[in-house]
Amino acid sequence: MSKSSDSETTYDLSGPLEFDALTSVRPGSNILVSGPAMTGKEELALSILADGSRQGQGAIVMTTGDPADQVIADYRERVDGLDEALFAVVDCRGDGDRSTDRSAEGSYVHHVSSPSDLTGIGIGITKSLERLANNGATSGRFALSSLSTMLTYTDKKTVFKFCHVLSSRFDSAGYLGLFTVDSGAHDEQTIQVIKQAFDGMIEIRERDGTREARVLGLAGKPTEWQEF
Amino acid sequence: MSEGARPVVLIVEDEPDVAETYNLWLADDYGIRIAHSGDEGLEELDGDVDIVLLDRMMPGLSGDEVLERIRDRDMECRVAMVTAVEPDFDILEMGFDAYLCKPIQSDQLQETVTNLLERSEYDDLLQEYYSLVEKSATLEATKSSGELADNDEYVRLRDRIGALREDLSETLDGIESDEDFIATLRGLSDVEEQ
Question: How far apart are alpha carbons B172 and B115 in whole angstroms?
């Protein structure tokens, strides 16, 4: 059950992905972005984040793959005149770097020693939320790329609980959460379990070289597949 | 916590007056044990203890050292550190579940103890929630949606999952506080490391 009041402004995610089901997503919703490798899951999640940044919302990226500097450089290209005070990165690539609170050219970066260091991740997300709120963000979007990496570091039980606790936190904060997972990298049962920690899902597939998406769980029945 | 028994709080505090004050505040609702040093605290600690109130600065074993030994022993109790200085929440990384700054007020102490018990409840609910979700996922992976709708076990399972989700969202106010959030995540890693 959502704690967020109905009067709060909903999130319109239909910019990067034109679905009616995405035009009015309630604050505190957490969405799984699922699809095979190389089908643009991360790209989609970051586009949705960037759309929010252009409207003055906060944005937090948690990365298990690309280094923070690269994430920031890429994000600057997406968002013209990015307000760095409203952007934060939680970098948990597991390169052993344990330094915290490092600001790279204005954007806030928190380093976590490994994707399995859930305490460090919790602290990084808490500090990011705090900083964005202090800088005036009244709403914001969060992207985690990717849960598949986390699943190689810890078991599905821990990842499920992690997702549930994060979802609850974002629900309280009125944030929107996007979590990518490589559907081909895990057995069906794992995906089925992980999926249940989320309010909805954007599923991606590729057919004959065309990428298609559909939305499940956010507004009634699953939508039809649609090219994007 | 044994069935029907009151939760047990262990107070580890080298100043007898202070320990006695905490005792007075808590004795109506909890079973209390008092230790006047870190060593005594470790002697008093067993599986029945739910909450440890641990003074950080003590002669002999410090609060940090006691905590380390508690965690080494894999005890499931929650530990609140009592400190003279306001720490950053980095302190939660050390394995403390909460901290209280001296001088402590009665309502503050009660609130912290209640909150820590609620965290244990949350962890238990989350564990139960997971095991039901896993069962449900196993059925979903092996049966068609038509079969599932007619499957009594599955229907009951979904009802219980829905109810548990509600319970979880009402426990700890749906993880609204930073401390609850970080400590709950830390609890997940602890389990995973075992």
Answer: 7
